[in-house]
Amino acid sequence: MRWRLFLLSPLLNYLRVFSCDRTIRSITNDILSWQQEHSNRQVDRPYVTVTYAQSLDGKIALILADKEGNDDDSILSSSAPTSSNFALSDPASFKMTHALRSIHDGILVGGKTLSVDNPRLSNRLWGTASRKMSRASGQPRPIVLDTHLKHIKALGKNCRATNVIVCCSQEVAATVDAQDLPDSIEILRCPINLETGRIDILEMLKQLKQKYNIQSLMVEGGASVLTSFYSQPQLVDCICITVAPKLLLWRGLSALNTDNNCRGSKSKCILDHDAFDSSRFSLLGKDAILLAKLRN
Fold first, then answer.
1. Cβ-Cβ contacts under 8 Å for 148 (sequence gap 6 or more)
2. Domain limits at 53?
3. For residue 117, which of 2, 84, 161, 229 is within the disulfide window of CB 3.0 to 4.6 Å?
């Protein structure tokens, strides 16, 4: 009996991989068709896909305890240190993330995410040079949202991502010393939204399209960036959320900064089923994937 299972193991593994890849292709094909619809409408900003992985209780990262193991509010706040080594989602979902990167012109993360994880922000797991890909290189342009440049400065020459566009305020850009920044980065000067005190997301998106021909943008987080985009749902075209069967509870960092999620009376911060043109769940490995097209 054991030898039969041994012989069947490669076949079962192949079928699992085939099934996962088919699900991933279905998701990317839907997004590609929505990107084309967006392009046909000649909108002055890129197509925006918000994507991230979360636990069942809506947490996106594991918060590190302090040396004494205390659980006070300062330790569990959005500014608390998080672990970059905690695998939240299934390997198949991680592969899907790389597939999504392959069909977007740019990939955007916040400065804190860059400094904590130091990601390469590239596609390494989906497609090959011999396979026809949606984009010629299958590689997105890394984009970092760092209003005051403090995170990119802290990372310095250790930054693993290359050819990075760093979006910061016009005031900070005017005073920055190039020697304090990693090599091969470009600074994009963005106006500040006086209502929020942060970079004006719409103006940033317009500049990314006009100056760098970013036609499609994948937003990966972290919490502050996700909150900024969700606070202006008219700027989000698609969401692709991985829900992992895990609970992080008080040791988890929430996907959204709900304490200041909706600044300003004009913010429309409620997303319900009526906000979607279409939505569906797919199983991928041990995870559930929510794919939804927003009605803009």
1. 168, 169, 172
2. 9-294
3. 84
